[in-house]
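Practice problem: predict the structure.
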Amino acid sequence: MIRFISIIFFCLTCLVNLNAQNLEVFRSKIALPEGDVIGAAFYEGMGSFFVHQYVLTPVPSILEFRTHRQLSSWDIKNQSIITKRVFDDNRPKTQVLPCGRVETSAKMRRVFICSADSYIELLDPDNLSLVEKMAQQDSGIIGDFVVDDIRSRLFVLTSPGDGTTRLTAYSLPVGNKEHETVLPVNARGKQMKLALDQDSGRIGIALNATIRSGQNAEIYTCVYESSLACTKITQTEAVSQMSFLERQILAATDIGNKKECLMTIDPVARSMSRDYCSPSTGVHYAVGVVNGRYVAAFTGISKTNWFTEETRSVSSSFSVWRAGEHKVAVVAKDPTNYGSFQGALRVVASRTEPLFITYAYHGMSGVLFLYTIVDKN
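Answer:
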């Protein structure tokens, strides 16, 4: 009997290993123009992607730095630049990075970026020329935004000068404000993050705040039917990135330890689980849902030498799970020593192709990586 059980266990192990081997991940390094990457987006179905960068330029005569942003488009197949445009030339350097989100709409043939942290620019994807400005904020700062391509809406999350947090819906075809709701939370000192489920139109919001014991996040979901309605779901650890898998929110925390797993938040049941784990490294900082079929997240770990105060990567890796299957299918090793910048890693996933982009938005200028998932099943 024991021998029979051992044979069954061996066969199951072989099946699991075969399943993992049938999934492969290939990595390409993309050398960019100089500057920190602060955002990226795939131009779905068009064979290209866009990269948003923040560039520091020293001014020796006055011993300070000036800054500008630049947006470039890239061909996926050839991995070559198509065009580039510079924005906000010679802005004074600030302590806070500008809103880096990039969104695209193949249906409208538009690229969306946040400009001067106070309005959204709609650009022509071919030459990056300005087509229209929307969502002008007379006071306050845009924290994040998302584009609902199916319903032709723009959602903008802002912190006006009165300390409130506001979510505003705009009609893309017309350009006017449709509805606005005020969240019952003071925006002062909070980092704002948005995610959108394109199928249902449901919006996820994470508001990170510093508290006495560290950082936490308040998680809200919003639906837009006759008006915008938002509900607080839970309060948890600080969220660094989140994405929707079907109608559930996947969130990567800002905690870099081996026991950390992705949070799976069910907005309807108001429940939370931690099913996507990597026992040897932990899962943290970055997550994306690729093509609706895979979950890709950062699973590297770092170590600090307390004598030299230097932080180095013990390992850098991105793990991929098949959606709904909670055992890691494949691990893509990344030779980059991100060190103390591991917390700045982000994943940008394609909604239509088995592709995802990774970058560190601070301290790792001039480079990003393009990953391709090949599933032989």
